[in-house]
Amino acid sequence: MICEDARLAIGADPEAAGGELEEHLRGCDACRAFQDEMRSLDADIRRALAEPPDVRSVPARRVTRPWREYALAAGVVLAVAAATLVWLLRPTDSLARDVVAHVRAEPDSWLSTINVSAGSIDHALKSSGVGLDLASDKIVYAQSCWFHGHYVPHLVVQTTQGPVTVLILRHEHVKARDEFREGGMTGVIVPAGDGSIAVLARGRGPVPAIAAELRQEVHWLPEPATH
Amino acid sequence: MQSPVSSIGERLRAADARASLTALFESLRPDLLRFAQWLARDRSIAEDIVQEALLRAWRSRDALKEPAAARAWLLTIVRREHARLYERKRLELVCLDEAADIPDHAAATAADSSLLTLRVGIMKLPLEYREPLVMQVLGGFSTEEIARELGLTSTAVLTRLFRARHKLRALCGASGQTA
């Protein structure tokens, strides 16, 4: 058993036992320390779950004076207008920066080596109105992530040269291919129909090849209703 | 024709059995409510879920062979009821903002701020991570039982549990908690 498998087993169940795991732990100080940490975390999780969550059952209706409501509404309108202006005027390379920032915020996405179920992939795609004819056995991470005001599929595709991250950006229109290198990642954002696809790898990965393949395979479905 | 004596005896035994089962269900209600609240993150919805689950359980009480299995059986019914309601009303989307809203009294009475951070972290976990974690830690379900209940492979459940703890670990680390 390798460390990655041991940590997956321990992270899933800190009390996990088994011949291979125990044998690995006997010879690996780092994984033993990880197990201790996970057991301690689990004790805290048990304490945290011991009481019901502190959420209000029904949002309390606050009594507000009319002028406060108008002021609030005006503030919201101004904020929306300002945000829209910033949005429209943002530099094009900010998209690449935001994509990198999003991927860096989910570091565990790179770790998975286990195929995601077809149902999870389907959920991540359909939540964003995206169709993708890619073999599901390549996908080891599939989430529907909030990005630039929309849910977008965040996938990690396992390749022979390592994992490659893909964000399918239905609402991000780019005029031309944009290659970038930032935060230790190389990436490209390519136009795809009315939207775009961002592909990133840590270090050097088969970014152009995956981007080219995805451009052929992605298609837009009717956008699901937002709630 | 049935003897009236045995008929009365049977009725008394049946009444005793019903009373015992009612008492058993009621004794488990706090556990069920806590479980439902961590799934739904809303007390009134959780109460509805538990009420509906207990009604369903009562209607199919013959399926419960061993009183010792009642807790797991009822928790399973609660989870399914939540899933049904979630499908119908998209609770996850409705409640996200509420989940982040911690009432002041909670902060005031929480002696351990790191525990509070963890509770908020669990509340904010997406349902796909929160559900197996709550089932495992609070419900005592095994990986295989969770997989069967959620219609996933055991590997997928392990991955979700790993990611749930990974996110909570990162959160605790970020808030400066030492476990």
Q: What does this 3D model show about the protein?
A:
The complex is a heterodimer of chains A (227) and B (179). Chain A has 227 residues and is of the alpha+beta class. Chain A has 2 domains: 3-49, no CATH class; 92-220, Protein Transport Mog1p, Chain A (3-Layer(aba) Sandwich), CATH 3.40.1000. Chain A is 42% helix and 24% strand. Chain A contains 7 helices and 8 strands, in the order ααααααβββββββαβ. Chain A has helices spanning 3-12, 19-27, 29-49, 66-89, 93-104, 118-126, 207-217; strands spanning 130-132, 139-147, 150-159, 162-169, 178-182, 185-192, 195-202, 218-220. Chain A has a 6-stranded antiparallel β-sheet with strand order 2-3-4-7-6-5, with helices on both faces. In chain A, strands 1-8 form a two-stranded antiparallel sheet. In chain A, strand 5 and strand 6 form a beta hairpin. The longest helix of chain A is centred in the middle third of the chain and has 24 residues, at 66-89. Chain B has 179 residues and is an all-alpha fold. Chain B folds into 2 domains: 1-100, Rna Polymerase Sigma Factor, Chain: A (Orthogonal Bundle), CATH 1.10.1740; 102-179, Arc Repressor Mutant, subunit A (Orthogonal Bundle), CATH 1.10.10.10. Helices cover 79% and strands 0% of the residues of chain B. Chain B has 9 helices and no strands. Chain B has helices at 4-40, 43-59, 70-89, 91-100, 104-109, 113-124, 127-137, 143-150, 154-174. In chain B, helix 6 (113-124) crosses helix 9 (154-174). The chains are: A alpha+beta (227), B mainly alpha (179). Chains A and B meet through helix 1 and helix 3 of A and helix 1, helix 2, helix 4, helix 6 and helix 7 of B.
Layout of SSEs?
The complex is a heterodimer of chains A (227) and B (179).
Chain A: H1 3-12, H2 19-27, H3 29-49, H4 66-89, H5 93-104, H6 118-126, E1 130-132, E2 139-147, E3 150-159, E4 162-169, E5 178-182, E6 185-192, E7 195-202, H7 207-217, E8 218-220
Antiparallel strand pairs in A: 1-8, 2-3, 3-4, 4-7, 5-6, 6-7
Helix pairs in contact in A: 1-3
Chain B: H1 4-40, H2 43-59, H3 70-89, H4 91-100, H5 104-109, H6 113-124, H7 127-137, H8 143-150, H9 154-174
